[in-house]
Design brief:
Elements lengths: L1 H15 L2 E3 L6 E3 L1 H19 L6 H10 L8 H17 L6 E5 L2 E7 H4 L12 H13 L3 E8 L6 H21 L7 E5 L12 H7 L1 E8 L4
Parallel strand pairs: 5-6
Antiparallel strand pairs: 1-2, 3-4, 4-7, 5-7
Helix pairs in contact: 1-2, 2-7, 4-6
Length: about 220
């Protein structure tokens, strides 16, 4: 099972590096169409594995220890997260992604309108660069857990909104994993319409509620 997942992700990474040449201008640019197809496949494969294994704190802790990632302790925790916060804010400046500090945790808030088209679970091609920036910072700070949670507004069927929130979280987490962030750091899930941050009575409020959040938490000794 693991080998099949890694093969899909490897294929996605290979295609992510491919380019295409514009026949009119001669310009070389990324092949976003092909990349989107395989990245989507990688997301599904990675999350199929994640959702069929224990995403418990203990399981993730053991995985990090097994990978040689030491736990943080004492004042090192705050310092580690301070540095990660600074780099994340710099990387995501002007991206539309909110960065919030909550104690020693970081919360990235990705509005649905910049991440996905309406009723779609496929990441917008222009958002790949933002997720690549997130990947770069996560790889520099491996002593953290990564919780990816999707949210929806209350328009339409609650069951549909739940599935949409889960699938969008899967797309984001799968892309990050495909770029090389350690799979065992992740918890992935969806809360549907159950956790709004604004009123669902207005278009502006519903837009805020349609989002994917990434909570980055330190791997500590306690």
């Amino acid at each position: 099972m693991k080998m099949r997942i890694f093969a899909v992700i490897a294929a996605a990474l290979t295609l992510a590096a491919c380019t295409t040449t514009d026949p009119y201008t001669g310009e070389t640019r990324p092949n976003y169409t092909g990349r989107g197809v395989l990245i989507g496949a990688a997301a599904g494969a990675a999350l199929g594995y994640l959702t069929n294994t224990s995403n418990s704190e203990e399981g993730r802790t053991n995985a990090l220890i097994g990978a040689g990632v030491g736990a943080l302790a004492g004042g090192a925790v705050g310092n580690y997260m301070d540095r990660q916060e600074r780099q994340m804010r710099e990387a995501l400046r002007d991206s539309g992604v909110g960065v919030r500090r909550e104690g020693n945790d970081l919360r990235l808030i990705m509005p649905g309108d910049i991440t996905f088209d309406t009723n779609s679970t496929e990441i917008k091609p222009q958002f790949y660069a933002v997720l690549n920036d997130v990947t770069g910072v996560l790889q520099q700070y491996p002593a953290t857990y990564v919780d990816v949670v999707g949210h929806a507004d209350s328009t339409g069927d609650a069951g549909y909104n739940q599935r949409l929130s889960e699938q969008r979280a899967q797309s984001v987490a799968g892309y990050l994993i495909a770029q090389g962030v350690m799979r065992d750091r992740f918890y992935v899930g969806g809360l549907g319409e159950t956790s709004p941050i604004a009123s669902n009575e207005t278009p502006q409020g519903r837009a805020q509620n349609r989002r994917v959040e990434i909570v980055i938490r330190p791997h500590t000794t306690s």
